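Priority: medium. Attachment 1 of 2:
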């Protein structure tokens, strides 16, 4: 009985707050002459803070047309903006900047949803050793990371040198499918110097680029390394979970002036790999069995950073200046 009463009170409180909120929005609109979308666009600067408020406003609207506007096809965004302006009785000639701002927000919102679908498709596609494109990417990974050490055979213990578990890497991609390979190749190809340094440090952490004094201070003589490729696939899983949970919205809405793309996701992976490497060294685990503990701690740190609406994980991949004018 007590459980029923508690649920009843919670339901009543929910509807009371919902009605109160709608009444408050009505009063504010009458006082300001602006709808909630206008107030958000005019009073919140471009980026995650604005886009996330617009997204919440549209999803929480009592109008089905507004609720579904966050799920439209990218080609239908312009018409959707016209529909929103018409529904809200906003004159686009008097408020031209509003349409531009709403379009930028919708491009990010719809783009994020499409990015999840694209990433999920790659994650679900298994590595196929009979597929020439898959094999070509795998060999490219080796060439980028070990340019001075030719691979003697496709099936070889040499793969362990870049952190795979056995003599055929295809078995290690099962968890993340092609997504893990795509990310590793992107890191090795576009951030080659850092990728090679991280690989070297993972094999010989004692000789990381920290100064000798820092190594002695931190007592890293027995520092534990890790398997580069396996950790890369694991960090791909971490990035994937951040994306699907919506946590990466803060980052992507701050760096992508329009729709976030797979390249943005891969750049974020590069950042996470580099940051995890430094975090691993700082944590100085006793052995590789502590990997899950260190990973979870790192994941929580990234999540906390992403709670800041101003956060951009990798500012050197920041959006173009066009974002400022939206």
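Attachment 2 of 2:
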């Amino acid at each position: 009985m007590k459980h029923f009463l508690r649920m009843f009170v919670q339901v009543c409180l929910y509807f009371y707050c919902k009605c109160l909120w709608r009444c408050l929005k009505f009063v504010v609109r009458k006082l300001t002459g602006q709808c909630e979308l206008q107030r958000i666009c005019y009073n919140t600067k471009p980026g995650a803070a604005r886009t996330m408020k617009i997204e919440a406003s549209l999803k929480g609207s009592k109008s089905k047309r507004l609720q579904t506007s966050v799920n439209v096809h990218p080609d239908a965004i312009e018409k959707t903006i016209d529909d929103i302006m018409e529904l809200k009785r906003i004159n686009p000639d008097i408020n031209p900047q509003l349409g531009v701002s709403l379009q930028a927000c919708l491009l990010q919102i719809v783009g994020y949803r499409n990015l999840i679908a694209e990433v999920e498709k790659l994650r679900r596609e298994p590595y196929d050793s009979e597929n020439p494109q898959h094999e070509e990417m795998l060999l490219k990974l080796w060439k980028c990371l070990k340019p001075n050490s030719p691979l003697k055979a496709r099936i070889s213990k040499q793969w362990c040198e870049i952190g795979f578990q056995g003599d055929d890497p295809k078995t290690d991609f099962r968890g993340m499918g092609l997504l893990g390979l795509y990310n590793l190749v992107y890191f090795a190809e576009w951030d080659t110097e850092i990728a090679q340094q991280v690989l070297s440090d993972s094999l010989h952490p004692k000789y990381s680029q920290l100064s000798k004094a820092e190594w002695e201070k931190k007592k890293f003589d027995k520092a534990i390394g890790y398997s580069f490729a396996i950790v890369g696939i694991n960090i791909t899983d971490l990035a994937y979970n951040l994306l699907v949970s919506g946590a990466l919205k803060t980052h992507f809405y701050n760096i992508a002036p329009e729709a976030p793309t797979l390249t943005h996701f891969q750049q974020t992976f590069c950042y996470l790999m580099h940051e995890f490497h430094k975090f691993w060294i700082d944590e100085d685990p006793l052995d590789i069995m502590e990997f899950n503990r260190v990973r979870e701690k790192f994941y929580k740190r990234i999540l906390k950073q992403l709670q800041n609406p101003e956060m951009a994980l990798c500012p050197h991949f920041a959006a173009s200046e066009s974002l400022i004018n939206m």
